[in-house]
Amino acid sequence: MFIALLLTSTRTCVSTRMSCLHEAEVHVCIVILSKMEKGKKTLGEKLKGSEVRGRVNGHHQENDMENLSLFEIIKLGKSATQSVVDDWIESYKTDRDPALLELINFFIHCSGCKGVCVSEMFRHMQNSEIIRKMTEEFDEDSGDYPLAMAGPVWKKFKLSLCEFIAVLVRQCQYSIIYDEYMMDTVISLLTGLSDSQVRAFRHTSTLAAMKLMTALVNVALNLSINLDNTQRQYETERNKSIGKRANERLELLLQKRKELQENQDEIENMMNAIFKGVFIHRYRDVIAEIRVVCIEEIGMWMKMYSDAFLNDSYLKYVGWTMYDKQGEVRLKCLTALQGLYYSRELNARLELFTSRFKDRIVSMTLDKEYDVAVQAIKLLTLALQSNDEVLTAEDCESVYHLVYSAHRPVAVAAGEFLYKKLFSHHGPEDEGRPRRGRQCLNANLIRTTVLFFLESELHEHGAYLVDSLWDCASELLKDWESMISLLLDEPYPGEEALTDAQEAALIEIMLCAVRQTCECHPPIGRGPGKRVLTAKEKKTQLDDRTKITETFAVALPLLLAKYSVDPEKVTNLLQFPQYFDLEIYTTGRLEKHLDALLRQVRDVVEKHTEKDVLEACSMTFHALCNEDFTIYNRVDIVRSQILDEQVDKFHRLLEDILQEGEEPDEDDAYQVLSTLKRITAFHNAHDLTKWDLFTSNYKLLNSGLQNGDMPEQIVAHALQCTHYVILWHLAKVSEGSASKAFTILCDALLIFSYQIVASGREALEPLVFSPDASLQSELLNFILDHVFVDQDEDSSTDDEANKIEALHRRRNLLAAFCKLVIYNVVDMKTGADIFKQYMRYYNDYGDIIKETMSKARQIDKIQCAKTLILSLQQLFNEMLSDLGCNFDRSTSAFCGIKELARRFSLTFGLDQVKTREAIAMLHKDGIEFAFKEPSPQGEGGPPLNLAFLDILSEFSSKLLRQDKKTVHLYLERFMTFQMALQRDDCWLPLISYRNSLQVGADDDTLSVISGMSSRSSARSRRSKQPAASKRKLPEGTCESSCSSSDVSMWVNREQSGPHTPVMMSSPHIVSTVLRDTKKLCPEQGYMGVYSMSNETQHTPLQQPSQVAWMMAQKQQQERASLQYGKMRGHIQHTIRRGSGLMEDDEEPIVEDVMMSSEERLDDLNEGMDFETMDIDLPPSKNRRERSELKPDYFDPASIMDDSVLNVSMF
């Protein structure tokens, strides 16, 4: 239909239109065009032979701007849009088909399509066929196109695209757009693309069409102005007398008016074609971004060319779209309307629209999207400025209560609406009012604010109301003189005095305004909190605080004297000194006003017993008793006098009660209670230790406990006062007491853990307490801050004896926390921060950490493995933060992490079946961590954590042969084909880890099945041979077997829930009284406290499948000789490696070997003497030193002496 409109419109040639210009103007245009043609190369010549250009990843390989397409020039944004458009116009004038073809390809490429429309397609195919062809070549897999891509480049491209269209129409508005060719083709193309099912085509073409429409509206507006001017000139010339009339000028003006009218009609036809062909269909598109574009542009049309577009035919689309489901579309509707309501001229033409959609706009003030609600309130404020009666009282009340909203932008917008509605109207009678005092204009506005505050039935938060009005009415809220005048001055004749409720509301508003002025941040619950103030804001804050002090230092004693009997008013008034600049009392010579204030506060303490009033008095003295100011002594004397009087009175009353020995009468009880209230209120903010209130309160409570006749309120306040006494003592607690408190807390958590319900004590289940995540974090942070410190950093210890004693205390702290880990009181993952310190602090805490790992593995092998790998990951991340992503793998930090991984690997022993799932899960987490973060070098570079695979390879030897294959398959899930081909140094961790999974497939030294089936016989055989080792090997460790029918089961294993913890024996308590100092026997070691009962350590052993057993027996004889040699060499090599730092790591080796099959055991005994096989390495120097210490946590006898306690833990 729009094509028909275009074809039926009357057009005239360009030369005819140019004839209406003056001859001088035409001559200048011809000269300029001739010079441009001689000096510039046309865009068609530049693009000749480059109709289709090759691209790599969407970018041209040539840097020459002459070889770039129009799309790429706009994308780069290096050329001015004006010059780009001028070049295109020159090429269009030279040969319009190639130029128009370039413009068509420009819109196609802006949509993200890589296809190109060639000249043959352009000449022989319809637009619909071209669009269908481009759709076939469109890559819809990625879903990205320029307008949907993020980043500054594409954001700038969108702006450049819109600017290009606007400049193109502006430069062509006098000639080319009327040639019946360019605009017809472009509009037809954009209309067809906007109807495409491809989102990229639809979005891009809609944006282009709307911007094209906006540019045409601007052209139509200019034509309308020129047409009006020409018509006015014609009428002026025609109205002249016949003698003065110039007929030639009349004919010229008439011809010019005719041509302008024809041009305007043609532009209107183009706009109708775009509006009906694109806007009508796309303003309700399924894509919200497209709807936003349509609404934004129609708002621009109505604002630019209101005579044509500001009518109900176009406004209805904005009104309908205000009901859109997407908040961004509703927001765009409101912003579009704000541009119309802002103009008083346009506002008058919106009456019908306002009456039709006013209810919807009012309801949008409660929109779930806060941004929409804010703009709806602002729109109503603009509508209110033009017509005060456009909103009813109900409409205004629905906005008023939003000043109490928790969302500050909504509240501020509602505060501005309230201010415009109630405070911005001044009558003629307000002209002669004084600027200050009770009769000033601000005083009347303050009255209005108080009335509004009292009439707000929904809320009573004065701070929220003040904050809402702060941005628009801060000058009013800072008029302290007018507020004080309303409270203290007598009303003038005929003036209505403030009621008691109004006075209380005014005092509260005045306090909130003072607080807002001094703190410069919104009240609690509204806004992000405190922010950094600028230098200007800080200066304003200091000036306002000085003014507040000077004003209220004089007025506050008078206000307290007037309202001293009203608890609510006094409570608010006593909070003002907290915001004073106390230096003003001295510099301003206001000491007499300070004395008056102290007298009033003292009278308030004597008159009132309400808790809020007394606490306000206490906080007032706390604010004034600042040792940094010279008024401290003056205030401290008054405070001491008040407390001396109250404490002496309390002692006298207490003695009378204790001497009588009877229940106190009502008068005595009231006197005791009121005195206790005053003392307790002051003790909350002041240290009253020197008055020894604990003894007096103890006597009072003891008397009430013995006689049972003490009133409940007296007991409550006595307990509260005693509570404050204890808190003030705790505030002076030393660091050593903090360590004791930590130990006691750990033991308390252990006692009240799930262990308390064991052995038939289910009745104690209500006492079970599990620490939350925050408490666990605090405990762990205490350990990290107080245990893992170097002795050089401990400045409190000078001599060697003190250092040893400090080490002893730190070991006890660590042991107390480790008990929480192994007894499942805290999450096992918290042990990662402990385990990662194993190498660094081995000499001090190595035995404790190693035993903690051993017991944690017994509780849950998989979770323990996850904790170990987590500790390595934490160390790796710390190393990256210190050294950066381009670190050298030969650095001491990386080598230390790798060595720690090797030590962790040794703790798993030789029984690969027992640790099979744990090792597998460890590799799984390690692989995922290595490929978790992308490469900082961009695509093609190694992942950030790829070097972690080098650390993970230390655990590859603990995998079974079939598990190595499965882990390798899981690794390949994260690898790309290009990764497998890389051989650079940065890829060496991946190469070495893959090799560790591929080599050694035949290195299994023990048969899995035979090792499982003959374990019981091996254990019984071992028990017959007494061992001569000094350190006993643990017996009866928990064992489990896994079926070999599904080797890859653990790779995809998901933790469906927490593992049921093993119920371990009741632990010893660290905080109990220690025995006398004694030496630890060497054979005792430090491992006794973790002993477990045999009943809790055994789990049923699953039998292997029959098929697996038969396969193992078939292969047993074929591999016996080969495995014997490898096993023997492996064991000897392991024993030799055990002489290093971690000498205890090799203890399980003997057990694993002795748990092998009987056939191999005989062979092993031939080459190894098990009488001398026990590991007996010399203790380290630090252990010899520790043997001289008094017993620490790891001596069970010294920690829990039955002879002293003679009771069980429960």
TrEMBL record:
Which is a GO BP term held by this UniProt record?
A: chromosome segregation
GO cellular component terms, A-Z: chromatin; chromosome, centromeric region; cohesin complex; nucleus
Q: Where in the cell is it found?
A: Nucleus; Chromosome; Chromosome, Centromere
Q: Does the keyword Lipid biosynthesis apply?
A: no
Q: Which residues form a coiled coil?
A: 220-273
What UniProt keywords are attached to this protein's entry? Cell cycle, Cell division, Chromosome, Chromosome partition, Coiled coil, Nucleus, Signal
Q: Where is the SCD domain?
A: 279-364
Major place of residence: nucleus
Q: List, alphabetically, the SUPFAM superfamilies matched.
A: ARM repeat
InterPro entries tied to this protein: ARM-type_fold, Cohesin_Scc3/SA, HEAT_SCC3-SA, SCD, STAG
Q: Could you confirm whether the keyword Chloroplast appears in this record?
A: no
What the entry lists under Pfam families is as follows:
HEAT_SCC3-SA (PF24571), SCD (PF21581), STAG (PF08514)
Give GO MF terms, alphabetically.
Answer: chromatin binding
Report the protein's function: Component of cohesin complex, a complex required for the cohesion of sister chromatids after DNA replication. The cohesin complex apparently forms a large proteinaceous ring within which sister chromatids can be trapped. At anaphase, the complex is cleaved and dissociates from chromatin, allowing sister chromatids to segregate.
Q: What is this protein called?
A: Cohesin subunit SA
